[in-house]
């Protein structure tokens, strides 16, 4: 008799997942589920927009200043409150996959890779970008 403990889904394979985060033990929706792309983009728009406003106010808009402000705010707010301003507005938080305190190195790695853009655009099955995978973090709904 075949072992059915690996997959109880009809016709399913053991490596299939039904929603992002299932293989990480996260719920399909609601609190502690993987943040979906629309929320992420909304948070990014807020964070970048605030960085542009600060850049215009203090540097008469400089692209490098804007990127620096964006990176600094990402690092500071993820370290202090587990999420950027935009992420908190959209009720998301960045947490270490292993649990515990996020520390300082995870926000640094995550922010540097996020500023390179490409790592954030490459996702795995759990909708975690390479920047999250490298930092060992996951962006969850609150």
Automatic annotation (TrEMBL):
UniProt signal peptide: none
Basic and acidic residues: bias regions: 12-21
Keyword Transmembrane: yes
Membrane-spanning segments: 41-61, 67-85
Protein name: RDD family protein
Segments for region (Disordered): 1-30
Matches recorded under InterPro entries: Pra-immunoreactive (IPR051791), UCP021697 (IPR016795)
Organism: Leifsonella bigeumensis
Highest taxon above the source species: Bacteria
Keyword Electron transport: no
Keywords: Membrane, Transmembrane, Transmembrane helix
